[in-house]
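MATE family efflux transporter: structure tokens wanted.
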Amino acid sequence: MSASPPRQPLLTEGPIARTLLMFALPILGSTVLQSLNASVNAMWIGHFLGESALTAISNASLIVFLLITAVFGVSMASTILIGQSLGARNMLEAKRVVGTGVSFFVVMSVLVSVFGYFATPAMLRALGTPADALPYAVPYLHMIFVAMPTIYFYNFLMMTLRGAGDSRTPFLFMGLSVLLDIALNPLFIFGWGPVPAMGTAGSAVATLIAQSVALIALLSTLYGRKHFLRLTRAELGFLKPDPVILRALIFKGLPMGLQMLVISSSSMLMMRLVNSYGSQTVAAYGAATQLWTYVQMPAMAIGAAVSSMAAQNVGAQLWDRVNRIARIGVGYNFLLSGLLIGIIYIFNRAALNLFLPGDGEALALAAHLNMIAVWSFLFFGVTFVLFGVVRSTGAVWPPLIVLTISMWLIRPPFAVTLMPSIGAEAIWWSFPLGSMAAMLMAMGYYKWGGWRKAHMLSAPHAKASLIPAVVEGDA
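Answer:
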């Protein structure tokens, strides 16, 4: 009898520390590439279009993040459901999740795109965007919303692959889109030959083209390699939403989407508070947040990795591995996030100088607020990792409650109360306070909460269907 080809390795197997690290590194790489892309674009805009344009992008980015959360929860819920299904060796349920998720996700992304396009001016005014930044922010956001369906579907596919235990393929195609985006940005921002100069809108056009090319290439590759989660012609019926799965995607995805909504809306409120101090302070805050994005990357990558890894182990009922995944994930957070924070403390002004002129008032402000707030992201990392494990079972409401308390009931009231006496310092110190409170609550719920008894689906949805052998690299 001939030997069967090697199958896709599952996250329920192998040494946990090595498996988690090897799975998390491509996720970290993808996050680095995304942030590098945003930072390079910010450098072009900040240095060549001015501080008002950089202020516009800082405000616009918060709005984009807010609207992405409208569908983030659905894709995260589908990732967990796919992980649990594959951990339980239930291929039929995994494909049903993919089909239902695709249909729901496409419809939602179009609705968000249309809403965002027409509501752009109103959202910018509600955020308190400075008047000198509005002419830069509106055209940028309009083009971003045109690109939203492509961006959403592309990210949905990548999260689906991660739920299946493959983080390498998303990383490779993320690299493709980022390289295209970086290469096309100066062309469309400044114009060349027949290409007109579009300013900030040109940066969004480059994103649209890069994401579209990467999406088409990813779909072609998955079908060319006969990926085991692809929907064949005979399986297109799975695109008809399954009521049980759709209910889980909505009612489990909604709280996870609201978690991101709490984070982004709190960030928008903090930006509104910062906006009251003028463009110099806003530019300083915008530059600092560029660095904070990098500091958060290890925790976000590890949190995403432990969520996918824990979901498969929950599906396989390997609870001892789930607990060890949490401990090892927290350890990796302290190691990797701590290293980045240390580097930023050493090269604080030099790093900020990438986004701000070296002789401006904004650079000194940014260096000061960075020293106050950047270390608090160690606390953020612990919270993110523990919540990644918790939500892998379907316990999605307690993390939402914790984030709401820390980011709305602690951080903004602290800042608003002390701003009249110590000014912007109150805003900067509210970050470590809110992060520490979130970490303590997350640790308490992980230890004493009932998350281990939670579930994504109310009952087993389909009889187990053994996962077929998959040649290494097909995923």
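The CA atoms of residues 60 and 124 lie 7 Å apart. Residues 51-87 form the longest helix (37 residues).

Cheers.
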